[in-house]
């Protein structure tokens, strides 16, 4: 573990000192008492809230609070009971680098031009203002722990952080019972029931350090971003979490017999050949591994929550929990991400903000990860950059039942310059596949009758009007309210 960057020394901010003038003639003792009391009240009134931003890799909405009784997530469920759970939160690209580059800059994917995991976010837009840099420039102590952008160095924004920690798994945590589910063909497709404790794994070690940092007393508010690696592949977690799941009780999704043939662009990956060879045992082991990793991460979230309890930080801290994108666990016979189906596009999101959210509430309106930057700035009284392309969802925090966005937008890119762009409305998912700005294929799914998105209605004449309407909204409807 290494602390890579130290916070630069900053001059005192004159705005942090408040002067008062008292009218009338008072005795010296009365004047001091009144001034002292007024100053304390004014300081409390302008005190900035901390921000704790928890980002989990590859986490689909599979927790108990999202209706799955099988996966053990008591701490995420408790977090949802404490605040506001968003049922319709969506990523802008179901792959790590494009998704994170988008929500950490507040720019849409086509604006930053990042469509894969190799290109740094700065290639096309330069060093635009990022989320951590805005907070640091406004007097916050900013802390990055593990993966927030898509990694370190050129994938990160080092100048935006006061402290940076890259914490890994130790050697003992890399040992244990393991198996590759494709006989080594797909290198990442493996699980490890690891030896050791939670803190032998990178997420457990990261949380240990995060808890220490949360206990530190500072004269500045903090912006802390925690990047949880699991359940991202390879599916490694301490053995005790694997033992919580009986293989005989796990079953992969049953696909409808009347499903329609999928567009050839929908899933383009050589991995699909290996997935198609999965036996029932392979599928059960995949599920167990993903569930075990999810429960492991849940335990780490619980440790953070316990520290917030003990340090009495909830009242002074904006807490936001998200997955960076969703994931398919056998739906459409696909065991990964990077597709425009609901399971890969939809993400879990939970907010706990004292004075804003109410305990145990749920929001069914659309929010997008690109909205987070704007929302944080709004909540903390910071002037957001004018180029941000999201929409602050602060009004939903205290009134989650008001009408909001018409839809959410997600996209992918395939080889040969082929782009898939999707809009999700409350009833429909509509997708256009475009090459050289020409639409070459469409998909339309009715979530009233086909929530799994298995029957493409786009080529049926009776749905031509719906497709036309949604096509217009896909092109021009960003941030439009109902």
How would you describe this structure to a colleague?
This protein is α/β, with parallel strands linked by helices and 482 residues long. It has helices at 28-46, 74-82, 96-105, 109-112, 122-125, 131-137, 202-215, 239-242, 271-275, 280-310, 342-345, 372-380, 394-398, 464-476; strands at residues 50-56, 84-90, 141-145, 163-165, 176-180, 190-194, 222-228, 235-238, 317-323, 346-352, 361-368, 408-414, 418-424, 428-435, 438-446. The protein folds into two domains: 14-42, no CATH class; 49-406, 3-Layer(aba) Sandwich (Alkaline Phosphatase, subunit A). The strands form three sheets. Strands 4-3-7-1-9-10-2-11 form an eight-stranded mixed beta sheet, sandwiched between helices. A four-stranded antiparallel beta sheet has the order 12-13-14-15, covered by helices on one side.
Strand content: 15-25%
What is the average of the pLDDT values?
91
CATH architecture of the largest domain: 3-Layer(aba) Sandwich
What is the CATH C-level name of the largest domain? Alpha Beta
* Full CATH superfamily name of the largest domain: Alkaline Phosphatase, subunit A
